[in-house]
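Deliverable D2.4 — example input (structure tokens):
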């Protein structure tokens, strides 16, 4: 049975085509308002209201094809779309042409308001649920997310700064850590915001560390989790390293509140204030890391050049350009255990131009993508 596409169906397709994000390596991401970089997730947002009896697979294919129908009619589209034999844009069905003529010149905010009404439920929850059944299950059960590495590092740093009798929910430093963890924004879904990393939860986590502490003679709290034990073992004999990493995380959070005035320097992504982006910027702006990376390079090579475009400040500007170079943290922070170990091999030398492009399209393109683009 053939299911006709409704006007709202074509409206969703038009929006996806018109406001998909073009990247310099000829990729296209879904519009930023949908808060996902995966087209499959973007399509699924509209399934409940626009499915009209289709299977999810048939719906996704139909919406994709409808989106592609508009591509050749939109000047700024990064995709070729459907074309006629003459090479022009393929003829649009009357209902699609009506949508195009009605919405093409309208304000984006107005169009988004219309499109948003076609998405069922909470946008963030819808995306996360379509991406991960485990996250959805956590939401249903009302469980808040497990503690991650950054949160545990901050908690352990506080543990070593307090007396055992001070680790209660009324302590001002416990309350301050609670606020900091709430501002950290490293979790997509928080099932119960009232209980999420509240002072009582912080106090319980400190109680978990008491169980691991051979210098504590009282009773701590069990069921601390595997990751908490790994964090304890990693830092219990290296509190200097713990202090440095905790400081880095705190600085990242502090910078988040000041980034709204610097949007031109931020990546073109829906989550442009993401923790990963700011964490990587902190790593590569550390003067000691820059010095160590440069010295490591000069131990094996006679000069410094951009690893992407091969530009050398010294060769171009002469002696006044000697030693000038930037470093880029080139490790993918979206993968599991990506924060566990960071060393100099995770950094590459880059010129300012290449660095700015990679940061602007952070996570959408990599240094390898940019290098291949230059070769082409």
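Example output (designed residues):
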């Amino acid at each position: 049975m053939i299911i006709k596409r409704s006007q709202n169906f074509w409206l969703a397709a038009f929006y996806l085509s018109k406001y998909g994000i073009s990247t310099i390596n000829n990729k296209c991401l879904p519009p930023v308002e949908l808060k996902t970089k995966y087209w499959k997730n973007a399509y699924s947002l509209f399934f409940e209201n626009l499915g009209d009896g289709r299977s999810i697979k048939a719906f996704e294919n139909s919406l994709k094809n409808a989106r592609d129908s508009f591509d050749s009619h939109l000047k700024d589209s990064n995709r070729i779309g459907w074309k006629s034999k003459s090479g022009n844009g393929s003829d649009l069905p009357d209902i699609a042409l009506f949508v195009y003529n009605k919405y093409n010149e309208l304000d984006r905010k107005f169009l988004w308001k219309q499109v948003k009404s076609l998405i069922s439920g909470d946008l963030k929850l819808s995306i996360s649920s379509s991406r991960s059944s485990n996250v959805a299950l956590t939401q249903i059960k009302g469980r808040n997310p497990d503690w991650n590495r950054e949160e545990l590092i901050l908690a352990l740093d506080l543990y070593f700064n307090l007396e055992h009798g001070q680790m209660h929910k009324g302590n001002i430093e416990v309350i301050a850590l609670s606020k900091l963890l709430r501002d950290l924004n490293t979790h997509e879904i928080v099932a119960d915001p009232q209980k999420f990393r509240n002072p009582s939860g912080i106090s319980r986590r400190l109680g978990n560390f008491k169980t691991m502490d051979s210098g504590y003679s009282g009773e701590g709290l069990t069921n601390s989790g595997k990751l908490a034990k790994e964090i304890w073992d990693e830092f219990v004999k290296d509190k200097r390293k713990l202090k440095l990493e905790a400081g880095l995380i705190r600085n990242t959070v502090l910078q988040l509140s000041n980034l709204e005035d610097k949007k031109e320097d931020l990546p073109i992504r829906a989550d442009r204030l993401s923790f990963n982006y700011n964490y990587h910027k902190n790593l590569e702006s550390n003067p000691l890391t820059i010095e160590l990376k440069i010295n490591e390079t000069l131990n094996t090579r006679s000069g410094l050049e951009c690893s992407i475009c091969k530009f050398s400040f010294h060769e171009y500007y002469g002696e006044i350009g000697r030693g000038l170079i930037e470093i880029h943290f080139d490790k993918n922070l979206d993968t599991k255990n990506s924060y566990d170990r960071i060393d100099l091999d995770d950094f590459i030398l880059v010129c300012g131009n290449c660095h700015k492009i990679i940061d602007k399209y952070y996570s959408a393109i990599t240094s390898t993508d940019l290098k291949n683009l230059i070769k082409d």
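The chain has 18 helices and four strands.
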